[in-house]
Amino acid sequence: MPQRRSARQVNRSDTAARLVSRHGTTWCEEAGIRLADKPSPLWRLFVLSLLLSARISSDIAVAAARELSKAGMRTPHATAQATWQQRVDALGRGHYRRYDERTSTQLGEAAQQLLDEDRGDLRRLRHRADGDASVLERELQRFKGVGPAGAAIFCREAQAVWTELSPYVDDLAADGAQRLGLPRSADALVRLVPARDVVRLVAGCVRAARDDAVVDDIRG
Question: Quick one: CA dihedral 120, 126, 128, 133, positive or negative?
Fold first, then answer.
């Protein structure tokens, strides 16, 4: 006979479903990135992760990522070939002005480093990590401008296509889950939703950690 779920399990599953439905938009989706296991979308995710990790609003970081893409900087090669001023101008159009000059330098250096070391292909980092998220985090943090927060953002989103990383639930996502009465444990948390919704659930938990309004909306 099928095992009956407790009322607590049902309530948690309902909470997780509401979170996915209302607040489960990923950063990639907001930035217009159709994530795939290909060099260009992975680079755009890398850039987005770097931008989001600065002390600036997520809306501005997403807008800046969109402007860089509109300006043609969708690959490490195009980013490295762009002038420092072109990168500054694109960041400025996204209102990423507080850190625009430093970030322009960081993006140019990161692009060149990736070209020199890995032929511009972030999938080589995946190969070296061999499914170990902590190794991938270290690989990402070799790039100037990417700290623990930026590496975590990348891994949270990349698990959609690098499925060996899943379930990836960092401390920020776990904090958000806890605020909603959901389990902090990655394995327990992701059992609340279908596999296809894991990335959206984690995204929603991050939003709950950062925004009281999300918690109020979900918990009523």
Answer: positive
